[in-house]
Write a sequence for this structure.
């Protein structure tokens, strides 16, 4: 199953993405900040990243 990494500082937004994507069958990893993101990407190897950049 495709893996999605969601990066957003707002917890409720991360939870919404996670709930919706999991209901569609995706594996979801969430994180609040971009700190350490490169290590996380290397570890989790997501297929796509949803990133809040505001």
């Amino acid at each position: 199953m495709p893996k999605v990494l969601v990066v957003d500082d707002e917890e409720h937004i991360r939870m919404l993405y996670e709930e919706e994507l999991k209901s569609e069958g995706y594996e979801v990893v969430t994180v609040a900040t971009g700190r350490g993101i490169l290590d996380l990407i290397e570890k989790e190897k997501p297929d796509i990243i949803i990133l809040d950049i505001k």
